[in-house]
Amino acid sequence: MKKKILVTGGLGYIGSHTCVELINKGFEVVIVDNLSNSEASALDGIAKIAGERPTFYEFDLLDAEALDKLFKFEKLDGIIHFAASKAVGESVEKPRLYYRNNLQTLLNLLDNMVKYDVQNIVFSSSCTVYGQPDILPVTEQTPVQAALSPYGNTKQICEEILRDTVKAEDNVKAIALRYFNPVGAHDSALIGELPLGVPQNLMPFITQTGIGMRKELSVFGSDYDTKDGTCIRDYIHVVDLANAHIVALNRMIGKKQKAKYEFFNVGTGTGSTVLEVINSFEKTSGEKLNYKIVDRREGDIEKIYADTTFSNKELGWSSEKNLDDMTSSAWKWQVALREKQATEA
Ligand code: NAD
Ligand code: WQD
C-alpha cells in the first residue's frame, strides 16, 4: 500500500518540486492549496513530470471545517507543511496576517493530527532563525536569535509549537527543516518559482533582468567583510531541498528518529557571494547581466552558510547540485515562462 502524504502549499515553489519527488519515490500525494501565491497550472506540471496527478483540494487551511473533512476522508500517513506567507518585507507591514496564516494553519493541522491519529509532520523552517550568527558555518547548535521580522518570528514560534506539542501528545512526531536559500527549478522547466510582482530575492531578479523584464539588478552593498565585498548565502537547489523532505518523512515513518522533535539544516555547506551568483548566471545562460552596485539593503545579513555535518550523517541526506546547476535551471525556467506567456497572449 502506498503511503499517503498531505502536502500543504503543494502548488507553491518548494511544494510542487517536493510533490514530484514524493510521487517518484512511490508516495500518494494529496495537496491542499488556496492558490494565494501559486497557480493551478503547477498541478499540470507535476502530473507531466511525475506521470501521476495528485489529488488537489483548493481551500484555505484556516478553514478548520474543510480541513476536518479532509482528514476524515483521506487516511493520511504524514504531512509536509509548506503553506505559509513568506515575504519578509510584507510581514513587517502586515504582522497579523503573517501570525494568523503561519501559526493558525499549523495549529489547525496539529488539532487534526491528534484527532485522526496522523503521527508525522515535516515543517518548513528557515535559516532566518539564526539571524547573523557569530560563528560560521552554522550548526544546529548555533543559538536561535531574536527574529528580525514577524515572518522570521512565525518560524521560531512554529518550531516551539511543534516542540511543545510532541511533548504533550504521545503519537505526534515532527521534523523541522531549516532551509538556507532555495533557488533553481526542475530540469524539465515545467515547474519553478512564480514570484508575484517585483522579486525581492536575488535569483528571480537576476533571471528577470536577464530576460529583459527588469532594467538592471541592484547589488546591495560591496563593502561587506567577504572576499569580494558582497554578501554570502548558502544557495541550495530546490530539487535537492525537495529530496530532504522525503528523507525526513521516511525517517519518521521508519521510526528512526532519535527524538520526537528534530531539526536539521538544509543547505549545501558552501557560501557564495552575490557576484559569484552573477558570474555563474552569465556563464550558464550566455547572457551578460546588467547590474550596478548600490547601498546595502537594510536588515541584510553579511554572511551565512550551513554546517551540514549533522544532516549528512544523522539524516543521511546531502545536496548533489552546484551553483551552475542552480543558475542554469533557474534560467531555463525563466525562458520557458516567457514562451508560455507568449503562447497565452
Ligand atoms: P510559496 O509561496 O511558493 O508556496 C506556499 C504555498 O502555500 C502557495 O502555493 C500558497 O498559495 C499556499 N498557501 C499559503 N497560505 C495558505 C493557506 N492558508 N491555505 C492554503 N494554502 C496556502 O512558498 P515557497 O517558497 O514554496 O515556501 C514554502 C515554505 O518554505 C514556506 O513555509 C516558506 O516560509 C518556507 N521557506 C521558504 C524559503 C524560500 O526562500 N522560498 C526559505 C525558507 C523557508
Ligand atoms: C540574497 C542576497 C541580498 C536581491 C530571504 C529571507 C529569508 C529566506 C530567504 C525564507 C543578499 C542580495 C538580493 C537583489 C541583491 N526566506 N540581493 N539584489 O536575504 O538571504 O533571505 O529569502 O525563510 O528569510 O530574508 O535572500 O534572495 O533576498 O538575497 O544584491 O535585488 O542577494 O543583499 O545578499 P535573503 P535574497
TrEMBL record:
Keywords: Carbohydrate metabolism, Isomerase, NAD. GO terms for molecular function: UDP-glucose 4-epimerase activity. Its EC number is 5.1.3.2. It catalyses: UDP-alpha-D-glucose = UDP-alpha-D-galactose. GO terms for biological process: galactose metabolic process. Pfam families: GDP_Man_Dehyd. Pathway: Carbohydrate metabolism; galactose metabolism. It is an enzyme of class 5 (isomerase). Signal peptide: none annotated. GO terms for cellular component: cytosol. Transmembrane segments: none annotated. Residues 6-327 form the NAD(P)-binding domain. Belongs to the NAD(P)-dependent epimerase/dehydratase family. Homodimer. This is UDP-glucose 4-epimerase. The gene is galE.
